[in-house]
Specification:
This protein has helices spanning 3-12, 20-29, 32-35, 41-44, 63-74, 79-87, 92-105, 109-119, 126-131, 150-156, 158-175, 183-188, 196-215, 221-241, 248-260, and strands at 49-51, 54-56. By secondary structure, it is mainly α. The protein has two domains: 1-37, no CATH class; 84-260, no CATH class. Helix 7 (92-105) packs antiparallel against helix 8 and helix 10 (150-156) packs across helix 11. The longest helix has 21 residues, at 221-241. It is elongated. The termini are far apart. Bound molecules: zinc ion.
């Protein structure tokens, strides 16, 4: 049946307030495999379908219900949310904080999305890649001793421990404060700190580990410091260009680093 015939046939069945063009648009939007589907006429007479526990009937529903239906999927928390919540015995408020902190930690989309990947537990470590046959074995790229999970890659391996220890010394030079990072701090960021810069640096160390892994070179502090310097220069340049260098945000964010940069 062509578009016009089907339009006329629908009109004979009582279709009102539309035209052939709209009808054709709707018809074309139906996936090809469904166009020839055998259907029970009685079933088609009702547009009602089951959504979770409730039955949803479009003709009798108001916009509000359509909206609720649309956001139902989006409101579900990610796998990582549940995983880290259980793993670190956090409540909803605390784990939500980890996700919310991502926005304030960096304006760079790439850095943010990397942090989201870890939080959402969708980082493709060898442990996962080996399961789908993408790499021959699941061992950590650098040491080749143990399975490369997010825990091992970002925290547990001795090569990783080394960079975190060096980072702690670096942070001491920047802030004058000792920091002992736990597995949770490394994976989720520090949840209750007023020093945004520390969380940003933790993310940059993880990113450095991740990129080093891809390149097959061991992460090292000299390279990390270069990354920090480059990020600082870029943000400074942007702040000067936007005439916000002397005020608020940029200074507050980088204050510790600016004060200590002579010694680093
Ligand atoms: Zn190792």
């Amino acid at each position: 049946m062509n578009n016009l015939d089907s339009f006329n046939s629908a009109r004979r069945e009582g279709l009102k307030n539309t035209n052939c063009l709209v009808w054709t648009g709707i018809r074309q939007a139906i996936p090809p495999e469904l166009r020839t589907l055998e259907v029970d006429v009685n079933e088609v007479m009702s547009l009602e379908f089951q959504c979770g526990e409730t039955a949803f009937n479009p003709p009798t529903s108001r916009s509000k219900y359509f909206y609720e239906l649309l956001i139902v999927k989006k409101a579900e928390v990610s796998r990582g949310f549940i995983k880290w919540k259980e793993e670190f015995r956090l409540d909803d408020v605390a784990i939500s904080k980890a996700f919310l902190n991502v926005r304030s930690s960096s304006s760079e989309t790439f850095v943010r999305s990397f942090r989201y990947k870890i939080l959402s537990d969708i980082v493709f470590t060898n442990n996962r890649l080996a399961k789908i046959g993408y790499v021959p074995n699941d061992l950590y790229t650098f040491c080749g001793i143990e399975s490369e999970t997010v825990y091992y890659l970002f925290y547990e391996c001795f090569s990783t421990r080394l960079i975190w220890n060096k980072f702690s010394s670096f942070w001491f030079l920047v802030s004058g404060k000792q920091v002992k990072l736990t597995l949770q701090d490394v994976l989720l960021g520090i949840l209750d700190t007023d020093v945004e810069l520390l969380n940003y640096f933790i993310t940059l160390v993880k990113l450095h580990i991740w990129i080093s892994r891809k390149r097959g070179v061991a992460p090292n502090l000299t390279a990390f410091k270069k990354i920090v310097k480059a990020k600082f220069r870029i943000e400074k340049y942007v702040a000067i260009k936007n005439n916000t260098y002397t005020e608020g945000k940029f200074q507050a964010r980088w204050q510790l680093y600016i004060n200590s940069s002579q010694e680093l």
